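Good morning C.,

I know you're traveling, so I'll keep this short. The sequence:
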Amino acid sequence: MTKFAHMLRAVVIAALIAAVALGLSGGIAAAQVYGDPVGAADYWVQQNLDDCSLMATADVVGQLTGHQPTEQEIVHLATITPSAHHDGPVYLPPPDPDDLDSGRGTDSRDLPLLLAHYGIQSVYTDDDVADDVGVPTGLASLAGALAAGHKVIAGVNAETIWDIDGDRSVGNHDLVVTAIDTDAGVVHLNDSGTEDGADEQVSIATFERAWQTSDHDMVVALAA
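The tokens, ready to paste straight into the viewer:
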């Protein structure tokens, strides 16, 4: 087994143990906060490129190590790291600086490669691959990961999160889920895509509608 495979196996086991220990496999318990939105908000930085996935990664690195890469640093790393899922590097900046949507974006499945560069073990999962990788997804699993101190990057539909016009049927934005408050019915986010994205808050129902467009994809980064 490769070193990377060992790393993934460790994350899988940790995530499953956390979920089982918290008894969340059947749903989220009422009146409880999973995660630390106040502490996490200090690591929010607004993006300047079409690099929401990379900024979410930098946010998580900061939360877990205390040393947060700048946007320039995380972009550089992504441009020199070969993708595991397509030809070329993980990220290519937009060829037209006046059109941020002209770039290719980032495949969320590549984010564990970037996190590994900072010594962080992580695993990608979604509805389609959850059984294969052994890490379930959905609100209960997300809450379990947060309660265990892990950090979570989720793929969502930006238009739904921001409540703006546009196509609400596709997953097109990555952000950091910092907490779920079941008492208030709120999901806390660090969202680099908006100037008010530090501890951005949406209802659990809104988050679920936005998250299901990506087949509930998430990257769980293991706390030390």
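Safe travels,
E.
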